[in-house]
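User: Sequence recovery, please. Input:
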């Protein structure tokens, strides 16, 4: 492909499936540090009992 043909094309191609995979990886990473609600409630109740 010479330079004339290359000018009309974007250097990067958009891939919807790739975008969804990356978004899922980001959300999985973000949510990995989240404490489940039941576990947090139990921790709060245990803390109140210790006081």
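Assistant: Recovered sequence (51 residues):
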């Amino acid at each position: 492909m010479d330079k004339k043909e290359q000018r009309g094309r974007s250097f990067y191609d958009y891939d919807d499936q790739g975008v969804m995979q990356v978004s899922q990886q980001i959300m999985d990473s973000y949510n990995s540090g989240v404490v489940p609600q039941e576990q947090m409630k139990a921790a709060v109740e245990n803390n109140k009992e210790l006081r």
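The helical segments are 3-7, 16-31, 37-50.
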